[in-house]
Design a protein that fits this description.
The chain is 50% helix and 0% strand. It contains eight helices and no strands. It comes from Nyctiprogne leucopyga. Keywords: Chaperone.
Length: 140
């Protein structure tokens, strides 16, 4: 046999191609941490994305209407008021109802899903005040 060992080396597959990559790769917890399945999920219904962005779309439509009726100044003033009202909050461990924001949006007289079933006083989770403040201030 004249070809010998050199023909075996020439026809062999490099070992680097056997590395775990591609669709059958094992997830390495030490290098990459835990996988987040939530980020990989696709919307289950075509209207899900629309419903998630409902308030944003509603505000955009209201700003466009206001701009067409009253000019450029009115929506800019309202956006500045929204931004100022969103910054005012209670301490992190106390629920902030943000009533001023609801009043600006015109939702103060409406009873919605979040008014009844999203009551934080009935929530089972209450954080420790000192830990939550330290987390907000970046001390933890």
């Amino acid at each position: 046999n004249s070809r010998g060992a050199s023909s075996l080396l020439k026809d062999s597959i490099p070992i680097t191609e056997f590395s775990a990559s591609g669709p059958f790769e094992g997830h390495d917890l030490l290098l990459r941490g835990f996988k987040s399945v939530k980020n990989e999920l696709m919307p289950s219904h075509p209207l899900e994305l629309s419903e998630k962005n409902f308030q944003l779309n509603q505000d955009k439509t209201n700003f466009d209407t206001l701009r067409n009726i009253q000019g450029l100044y009115a929506p800019l003033k309202l956006q500045m008021e929204f931004r100022a009202v969103k910054q005012v909050q209670r301490l992190p461990f106390l629920h902030s109802s943000n009533m001023a924001l609801d009043t600006l949006r015109g939702n103060d007289e409406c009873i919605g899903f979040e008014d009844i079933l999203n009551d934080p006083s009935q929530s089972e989770v209450m954080g420790e005040p000192h830990m939550m403040m330290e987390h907000k201030l970046g001390l933890l």
